Each structure stands twice: as C-alpha cells, then as structure tokens.
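Q: What does the assembled structure look like for these inputs?
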Amino acid sequence: MINCTTVAGLRGACDAARLDQRSVGFVPTMGYFHAGHRSLMRMARTANELVVVSIFVNPLQFGPTEDLSAYPRDLARDIEMVESEGVDVLFVPTVDEMYPEPTQTTVHVAGLTEGLCGAARPTHFDGVTTVVAKLLSMVGPCRGYFGKKDFQQLAVVRRMSAGLNLPVEIVGCPIVRESDGLAMSSRNSYLSEFERSAATVLSKALFWASETVVRGERDPQRVIASVRQVSILEPTVELEYVEVRSVGDLSTLDALDGDVVVAVAARVGGARLIDNCTLSIRGDDVRVDLGVLVHPSIERIPTCNE
Ligand code: PAF
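A:
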C-alpha cells in the first residue's frame, strides 16, 4: 500500500494508474473506521483496479460549537483496516496540506443544503462540498463512494459533481447496521451503553414507518407521526427532525410516490445521530431499503464505556 501525505504523491499514484488504463475508485473518509467504511472500500475494490482512501477530519465542515476536537481518531487501527481491505493508496494529509492558505475559495450548492441537517448545521455542507471538490480534483477521474446514511450529503455531492462537470461517477452505498439495527457511525463511540441501547429506537421507528407504507399509507404526515410515536418510547432520544422527502431533489411531498426517503436526526447524550430508510413506491408495489446488517465477523466499534 502507498501511504501518502502530499497532494503531489496522491496525484502521481492516481495519474500513473490511469496511464496504465487502470480505473480509480475513491473513498473519502474522516477515519475511525467501522464496517460501514469497510463496505465502501469493498464496493470500490470490486469495481476498480486502484482503490484510494483518504482520511481527513475536515475542520471546515464542523460548526464552532461542534465536535471537531472530540472527533474520534485512531490512525494505527485505521491503517490496519485499510491494509486488510486491500486498499492501494491511503492519503492522510495535514490541515496545512489541504488548506495551505486561509480558505477563500469555497463550493456552495444552493437549495439542497437548506433544511434537514442544513437547518441545525448551517455551514456544514459548504465545508463538505469544498473538501470533496478539492479531494476529487486531487484524485482526478474516478468513481467516488459515499454512504447512503448521509443521504443529504450524497444528494449534495451528486448535484455538485453534475453542476461542476467533475469527471467522477458518484456511487451511493447501502447503510450498514449493527445486529440490533443501529446504523454504523463513528459518532456511536460517544454513546454510553444505556444511550446506545436507547438509540436503536431510531431504526425501529424507521422500520415501523416503512411497514405502514407497505400496508398502504401514503400520507407523509402520518408516516412522520408514526416515527415520532415509536421514538417517544425512548425519552433519552431527542428528535431534531423527522422528514419525508423525494430522494433525488429532496423536495417535500403531498403524497408518497416514487423514490422517497424517511429521514431522522436526533440527539442522544453527546451524539447527534442521523438515520433513514428509502422507499421505492410504484402504485401498490413498495420496496423498502433499510440497508444491510453488519456481518458478525466484522468488529463493532466500542462505546465510550468499553
Ligand atoms: O462523510 C464523511 O465522512 C465526510 O463528510 C466526507 C465526505 C469524508 C468529507 O469530509
């Protein structure tokens, strides 16, 4: 594995692969890997000759009161994981390498970044699009792999790539869940054992809401109410939003039809968690996508009490 810390090193490795007719798959991350990250690497591995992973905790996407300094990091463990996933290039830049000068150039996607997570995190998506645009420009033509758990991020990155004609194919990858349904997230490590168990109410509520749609419910407000009804069973879980949106443009809906996402954000102890399920609705036919359960052989991320 090539371990590089400079933009020139990353570019050189990617250019050399393409010169050799080898396709490049790129997985941008903030590290502290769990099975969700590993599934992105595996998707990239199956479709590309060169797999590149970046680890960079991007200060630009954290608000002033958010968890930048507390964000979990364990580079030694991450390196072991990328090696075991057969990754070819690992890029771990410093903040100075990524932002050598005070940031004056940013990338903004209008519309899609407003509301949902953008309401509570008003500067977050500009930070994401700026760093992702920079990383994609360093890697060059590639397939880029992003998790569907961050469904708004995925929609925003797709829109940015199309809007800027970036030479990249964006691939959305399934949510990976722990065996009790909790969506994998590096931020799960902030949860105590009690909070972690309470947080499983989010996936239960999404499952229950999707069941109501399978049984014929098409009113978004009733689907939202069913998520709230289940979540209320766990007072430790403070819902920030429950929304039903169209998958492609995140528009609100009067009635459920087509590809729809039911999304939640909640505060649980010191963690802000998000989760969602997507529904593909064609008349009476409803396909539910809640993601996949982690394979028991893959290590679970420890909570703060372990
Ligand atoms: O999803 C993430 O981990 C981050 O938002 C990303 C895409 C790596 C950009 O920093």
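Confidence is low (pLDDT under 50) at residues 302-306.
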